[in-house]
Amino acid sequence: MAEKEKTVKLRGVKFVNSTISTAKAEFVAGMHTLPAAIQQAIGDNATFLDHSIYAVKRTNNASSLELFQDSDTKQEGVCNLNGAKLNAGEYFMLTGIRLMAANYSTETVGAEYFQSIRDLGIDIANGELEIKANSKPVTSKLSCRVFATSYEGGAKALDGYYRLESPKLIAAQVPITATLRLNPTVSHGDYMLRIELMGVITARA
Asked: Does some domain include residue 15?
């Protein structure tokens, strides 16, 4: 028997829910956390687009690293946030996180070939990653072993990807942090890391 779909209407925007939740459906479910005026503005005047927020940083043997920083500026292949904040009027539903790594070289940052931390065989898998927005936790301190995944052939999955069981809504113009912590008593080597926050973002119609 075919799965029965349920249509959800939100101030003129129509969504279809099924038993496999989409990022858009997660966005609708989180709308109640926003002030009423913002809910109305999003529902009446916005469309919803697949989106990823990303940044590339060098580890340089550090045991603690901020993957988004106030000094960040948009540069293709390196970072797509200014000042680690969404633009005014943008709202982002975070549904998954991807963490990839590459060996450091003297080439231009952003030109690296990134792969799973599992395939690279580095101890970053033993670390912890914590995401915050406006200094409030978006995730707990996740073990980086959840990102130590790789798939071959026709597998319909992304290397280094972890889907959140509890998606979170990130508002415009609040600082976003992604803190990586490693064992401070050992040497970690010099690598490039690429973090991607994946989900759905609002766009003005």
From this structure: no
